[in-house]
Design a protein that fits this description.
Blueprint: E1 2-10, E2 13-18, E3 21-29, H1 32-41, E4 47-51, H2 52-57, H3 63-72, E5 78-81, H4 87-96, E6 100-103, H5 105-109, H6 111-120, E7 125-132, E8 135-138, E9 143-148, H7 149-155, E10 163-168, H8 180-190, E11 194-197, H9 203-210, E12 217-222, H10 224-228, H11 233-241
Parallel strand pairs: 1-4, 1-12, 4-5, 5-6, 6-7, 7-10, 10-11, 11-12
Antiparallel strand pairs: 1-2, 2-3, 7-8, 8-9
Length: 243
């Protein structure tokens, strides 16, 4: 199981939000490339980048920062989400060296787009499912849809999606522990590899997630915990690797 550091980009800085609220941010660094270097030196095997401004704008805002990180660490798997609404944007990111792009809002509003993207960029598409009480949220979590998270995941099972990033909004940035039960249930329901996100706080969360690895939970994204020091990235990965 992979422990994946999150680098959330807002106004050129590396921040963390609470429950997706743009006005409720904590700035951890004004050098996102330097932050990427820090996590690579701590043993990161993959990076999770989010263009927060892009998620609200519906178009990439931090493309140059993402390109700079991908160029510096061209052998490191990188996934990027936020504002990805066109095949042209996906192509630009992949040409820049990004490994996977995460489609969130567009997956709910235009499922055919995911199918087209999977066909065009085979193996490079992740669907990001952000849920509030089991219902999918869109547009930077500003809107809650009438689509159930498990139903959305199942609808893409045959489309060629690489994996699902599942975020429990209620837990995100709150340091309250990961929603292991919901994450495992989603993985079982769709049969796709699932990466847990939201609420990863300490080594206990990693231990709990390991118990559902057989359900298809292949990784955990962590943000505030590694920035505030309640979780050590190297220790967490060591625990995740242990038999």
């Amino acid at each position: 199981m992979l422990i994946i550091p999150a680098i959330d980009l807002k106004d050129g800085k590396c921040v963390r939000l609470q429950q997706g609220r743009m006005e409720d941010d904590t700035v951890f660094s004004d050098d996102p490339v330097g932050m990427a270097t820090h996590w690579v030196e701590q043993g990161a095997r993959r990076l999770h980048l989010v263009d927060l401004n892009g998620a609200f704008a519906g178009t990439p805002i931090h493309g140059e920062v993402v390109k700079a990180i991908a160029k510096k660490y061209n052998a490191l798997p990188i996934q990027i989400g936020g504002g990805i609404r066109s095949l042209e944007t996906i192509e630009t990111y992949i040409k820049a060296g990004v490994t996977w792009v995460i489609i969130g809002t567009k997956a709910v509003k235009d499922p055919q787009f995911v199918i087209d993207a999977c066909r065009e960029f085979h193996g490079r598409i992740i669907v990001g499912i952000d849920a509030k009480d089991g219902w999918v949220a869109t547009d930077g979590w500003a809107e809650v849809s009438q689509v159930k998270a498990e139903d959305l995941a199942k609808s893409f099972a045959a489309a060629g999606v690489s994996s699902i990033v599942y975020t429990d909004i209620a837990r995100d940035g709150m340091m309250q522990g990961v929603n292991v039960q919901a994450t495992a249930a989603l993985a079982r329901a769709c049969g796709l590899p699932v990466i847990a996100s939201g609420g990863v706080t300490n080594l206990d969360d990693i231990s709990r997630l390991k118990t559902v690895a057989h359900d298809g939970v292949i990784g955990a994204i962590t943000g505030r915990a590694i920035y505030e020091g309640t979780l050590n990235l190297a220790e967490a990965q060591l625990l995740a690797d242990a038999e």
